[in-house]
Structures are given as structure tokens and as C-alpha cells.
Give the backbone structure.
Amino acid sequence: MKPPLPGLVLKRLNNQTTRTTCPYCGVGCGIEVDASNTNLRMKGDAQHPANWGKLCVKGSAVGETLGMEGRLLQPIVNGEAVDTDTAVAAVADGLNRVLAQYGSDAIGFYVSGQLLTEDYYVANKLIKGFIGTANIDTNSRLCMASAVAGYKRAFGSDTVPCSYEDLNQADLLILVGSNAAWTHPILYQQMAQAKRDFPHKKVVVIDPRRTATCDFADLHLAITPGSDALLFNGLLAYLANQHALDQDFIVQHTQGFAEALASAQQSAGDLNKLAQACGICLDDLTRLCSWVKNTPKMLTFYSQGVNQSSSGVDKSNAIINLHLATGRIGKIGAGPFSITGQPNAMGGREVGGLANQLAAHMDFNQPESIERVARFWQAQNMAQQNGLKAVDLFEAVDNGQIKAIWIMHTNPVVSMPDADFVRQALEKCPLVIVSDNMADTDTTRVADIVLPAAGWGEKDGTVTNSDRTISRQRAFLQAPGLVQADWWWITQVAQKMGFKTAFNYQSPYDIFKEHVALSAFENDGVFSRRDFNLSGWLNLSAQQYDDLTPTAWPITAQNPQRNARMFSDAAFFTPNQKANFIAIQPKLPLEMPSENYPFVLNTGRYRDQWHTMTRTAKADRLLQHRREPLLSLHPLDCYSDALQPGGQIKAGDIVKVSSRLGETLMRVEFDDGLQPGQVFAPIHWTSVYASNARIDRLIPAVVDPISGQPESKHAVVNIELWAVNHHAWFLSSDPNWFPSAYQNAYWIKVPQQHTTLWFLAGQHTLNLTDFSAEFDVQSSSVECISYNDNAMQVGRYAWLKDGQLQAILCFAPRLDDLPASDWVASLFNQTELTPAQRLAMMAGRDAGIEDVGNMICSCFQVGENTLRKAIKQGAYSLVELGKVTCAGTNCGSCIPELKQLLAERI
């Protein structure tokens, strides 16, 4: 595939300040973009209620990801670049052929929380209302489907009851399965500041790992993986025994309590047995019980550690049961608060982006709702039943049931469980359509048609964050090349398929107006009573849409302003308006450790990365905190008899991590925050950036039977040392160089501002020509300088052209024998190296350029060595470190690591 339309540059739409919304996590922070200067300037929007002007390092660096490098700028059909009309016709004709030959259920869409609500709306309308199948699912299935199902079972609706304001008001914060310090850093800093301001507040973190989030916790419960529901059942049983429940609330506003309590008492009624089953000490458990009993303003903040489980829905309902039993819902500082992972996962839920939803918070299990939506859309081919959820969808692709699939803004070949199976399924699917803004991803590599979609800064619409706040995402850049917004591609294809009247939209505003109207349609308490209601915006003008300020739904004529909290009237969305208790029988993960697979693998995010790195890898500084995907082990496990073959593993060694599905190669780090027998790996690295680090190829496609959400937080694996002949790193100014000799070995690609850094390890003997072949060493303009210690098997080679550094290779049998690469990278900026710099490169020592060490503060580029030096010189507190180095004074994500460095001084 040739990179089309070279030489394009970013073009601004205006020279004004644009208020928009961050494209990363579900916090939904506001960003101000100042286009009045040569460079775009970005800062937090001080008026946005999600962040009040603060940004994490990813949000601060988002402007650095907007370049043209790697962009998909032209449609590709069967490997050939084409114009937009040809691409639209190819998609429409392909879908119509499948529809005519195999029927509607042979078509599937797999979409994303990266879509704007307007994009989501037309995608859902097309496939459910006009193609006639509900086979549309979203990568949000991997994120929060279990939380959705939990809310719906309890409340009769997918209603998040809390707001971010409650995080400040709660006197007891319980974080379950959330490393918010790294995954939702702005909310974490908000909670941490509230704790500093009011030290009486109690913070409990429930997580098998000790993570950065534990830094502000009064109590960390490192529970046995999968025992969350058991623990919350135990809390319910304890409060009942202590007569500490809100009996009036239970009687007046709930149903099913007796059954739920009986299950809790049967499974977790004995505190001693409960502590043992959860793997925690009795004193810690009784402390938690006491705090829960005596703290009315209690908020439970939960995320993927709860959701990504084969019993995630039950875990969610065990949490909700506790809040219902104590009446701690619909009140200031109280409630069960599920936090989403993507910027518009909530918007997708609103329009029906999941296969088991209809639209506007209506479902297929109500025939009158199907008829209502069909009548509103004037749809003649309305889907009548739930479609295939994500795992089932790709199984249907594999078995031939799905003949055509359209994937939008997501990378399932990396992110789905059993990822190799997903890739193989797509490779044999007759028609794979992918919409993306990047040309080369693991998923575009298996596509027949690739559509260039607008990225952040180029598209216009709305998103909804984790506390139901709808915000505008506004365009401030012109879409380059033949790039179009997703809603445009979808509506053009729909028109070409024969549905022109229903998809004759001219702008995102037109779509949003219809979305608002559907939310209000027959939603007056007579025909139905639904939580999602935007009827207060029915008369919204185009200018008002453009000027829209962040507002939490529901938005009605009676309540047109921000609605911070739901259920303050204790009226739920069940037929009798009573909330449902759910009797929970706790279940452990389906796959447990064995002799062949003795370790439990947990997966998750790194602080400065996002999903599959298609955006964050474009920002140099976001790759400096963790440049390689590391397998974290407890230090005691380096001697474990479970390691195959037996023997000690050292930090920096390469290991093969294998499950019954596949294997990966990863470098080892030790983390005493883990429990022995548990390991952790990041989810981000793809085949674009690593030889073999797609961790989801190890994760079995085990799902929650209700939500269909995969158990991505739990797999069982084997670990064995992958003995190497050499470790190496290679810096090259050639962006097209590739380590072909390491295809079946270990390589990690780290894009940098002027170079690309490659980390390499191989079992073969290093061959210098694998690196020097691109240089004409016979040319008088090319020079190679080298250092070789044959006895130590250590070597350093640098290639210069006309005196300017082009590439440098350093290799050694041990990782510890390699010099630091950071200071060498800065030499590529110079037109000619000095004799001292040449000597320093070969000696492996810097030439007056400070080696700052591992990056700790990405916001201000402050490394570990710089921080240790400041501490040694007397900066003994966070405040003093901040004054000297600025570290920790922006987003605060690095504060737990700063505290750790300060603690080492004592």
C-alpha cells in the first residue's frame, strides 16, 4: 500500500480559540485550542466541569499527535488508492451483494467509543433500521458492558447515578478494580486533592495489585483475583448483622432484598472465612466493615477490574446491592459509580451502539419499543432481536455466517481476546471494510477496503463522558486529502445502498437534532418513561448547537440545566419504580492456575499510553515513561519452581509468556506490588511496534454470560526464560529501516522526534550487515566508526554521512552492558559531530549531555537521574522537588513515583 498524497500539511480552519473535548479516556476533559500563533497551543478548559482547566500528560500532549505521519489520506480498495465516489460505491455494492445473497444477518458492524455520537447514531440507524440486523457491537463491549447490565438489572435503565462532584463530597471512597492514577488521572487528582483538604476522608483501594492509586489510600485490600463479589456480599451480610441497613429505603423503594441478603449470608456471612477466601487479613476486613457501617457518604468507584470478568455483572450488582441496602444512592457524595474508559462510550450507549440495545435507551425485549423506533425512523426493515456481541460477532466471521464486516475506529486484531483467532477470521472474511485515520494498523492490514476517517481536531459533534455530561468536540483543522468524517462515509454509503431519504443529512447538527427528537419521542410518562431524555433541546438551533456548553442529561423543559445526580427522588425506571436487588452467588474466574500454566496474568494500561498506540505513539514524550512493554513479576517469582526451565530470572531478561492460545516475548521487571504467582502486562503494543507483544493473543474468549464482556483481566500462563545471544539497541534516522533479521526474535520500535529507536534481542549471532546494508561504505561521504571488544562481545558502530550521524548500533551479551541511548539520540540533530562526541559514542559515555534517566515526569521531561540528583541536593519533599524540577506540578500523574523516590532516601 503506497502512502497517498505525500507532502500534505495541517491546515487550520481559523485563527481563533476553539473549545473542544479530549479524545482519550471517559473523563471527558475540556481543552482550549489556541490557533492564533504559529504553533497550536493547547491547555485545559477552565470552564469545563470535568477538569476545570487541568489536563493529564496525554491530554497535554494531544497536539503532538496531529501530524501527517502515518495518516491514511485516500481510500484504498483492494490495495489500490481510489477516489471517494469509487470507495463509497465499493462499500455499498459489497454490502448490497451480501444482503441480496445471504440476508441481513450476514452483515456486521464493529464500532468504537472513539466515534462521536452523531457518527454512532447513523451507523446504528443504518444497520438496525435499514439493513435489518442488530449485528453491530462496539469495543465498549470490552470496557463497560458489565456495568451497563448491572445498572439495568438494578435500576431498569442504564443510568449512571453519580457525578464527578460526588468524588469531592464522599467521606468514604472505595475504588474497586481501578488504577485511576494512571487510567483516569484527572479524577484521581481530584480525589487526592479532596483527601488532602479533608484528611478525615477515608480511601480504600480494592485491587490484587498495589498500584500508583494506592498512594493516597488509607487501606489497600489486595484481594484474591475475582473475589470482589464475595467481598461485597460479605459487607452486606455484616451490615445486616449489625442492624445498620436503611430499612425504610429498602421497604419503600426496592424489591428482592430478602433473596439478595440470603445469598450474601450464605456465601460470605462469616468474616473469618471471608477474609481467608479473599486473601486479606481479618483486621483489614473489619476496618473496612466499620468504615462502611459508620460512613453514610460512601461512593464506590469501579472500573475494568470489576467489568472485565466472567462474572462482571454479578460483581457490579454486588456493589449496587450494598448501596441500595444502605440507601446510599441519589444523595450527595454517595452511589455506585462506574467509570468508562473511552471518550464516547456513554454516547454509544445512548444511541444503541451495543448489539443488545435498540436506540435511545430502548431495548429489543420490548416489542413496543421496536415498533416505536421503526415508526420514528420510518424503517421498513427494522431489526427485531438482539444481534451478536463482540466475541460472538468474530466467531460468526470465522464460521462464515458474517460475510461482510465494517470496522470503525478500532483495532480488534490487537484488542479482542484470542486476538490471533480474530485476525485469522478477518483474513478469510469475503469483505472487510475498515474506517481509520491511520494507514498501518494490525486491522487495516487485513482489510479489503480502507476509508480515511477524520481524526481529532478535524471532526465535529458531541461526546458523553462518564457522568452523563454531553460536550462538544469541535473541529479546528481542515481534514486533509480525501479524509471525511465518519458520519459522512456512513450516510453516503447508506444513500448509495438505496436509503437516500432516511440519510439525507447535511451536517452533524442535522443528526443531533434527530437524536434529540428520538430521545423525547413518546417519552412523556404516558407511552413510556425513559431515563435518557434530551427533550429540553428539541428547539435547539444550529447556532445553539455550535455554542453548546457541557451539560449532563436528562435535559428537559423542567430541568434544562446540568443534572448532577440521578435517583434523588428514589424513583427508578422499573415498572413499579422500585430498584431491584439481585441475589449474587460469587464465582471465581473460569480458568485457574495449573501445573502447565501456574501464573495468573492481569492486563491493563500504562500511564502515558492509550489503547493500541495509534495516536500516543506519535508523541515522543509519551513513549519515554515506558518505552517497552514489560512483564511485571513479584521478585520472589524469579526463583519460583513454576518457571520453565528452572533457574533465576533477572530484571531485563526476555521471557516467553505462553497460554493455551499463543505466546509473546517480553522483557521482565520486578514489582513487589504484585502478589507472588501473579503477573501483569500492558495491552498497548501491536505488530506495528513490537515483534511479539500483542498480549490479547494470550487471553481466552471467556465472557460474562449476561453482558458478553470478556475476562480480559484474568488468564493463566507459563513463563520461561528466552535465552539470548545478544541485547542491542539501534538508532536510525531512516524511518523505513526494519529489523528483518529479528522477525522471529525480539524487537520494539520507539518512534522519536528525529530518529527511530529499536530495542533488539536475538538468539542468533548478530550480523553487522543487517544494519550496515543501507550505507554505501565505499562512498567517500560515508564513514563508519566503531569499537569492538571481542572478548566481552561488546560492540558499538556508528555511520555518518558528510559528518552527520545517520545510525548507531550498540550490542552486548547482557542488557546491563549497554550504554544509555537517550543522550545519543540528541546527536542526530547536529550537522557534524565533534571529536569529543565521536569518542563519547564509542566509549558509551555522554559528551557533556546529561543522561536524565528513565522518564518520570512526562509533562516537563524530568527523568529519574535528575530527580535523584535534586533529592541528594536537599529537595526532600514533593513541594521542594516541584520547585527545583517542576515534576508533579502539572497533571500529577507522576506524584506516586516521586513519593517512592523520596521514600528511598529515608
Observations:
- Residues 726-841 form one domain.
- The CA atoms of residues 642 and 705 lie 32 Å apart.
- The longest strand covers residues 804-812.
- The mean pLDDT is 94.
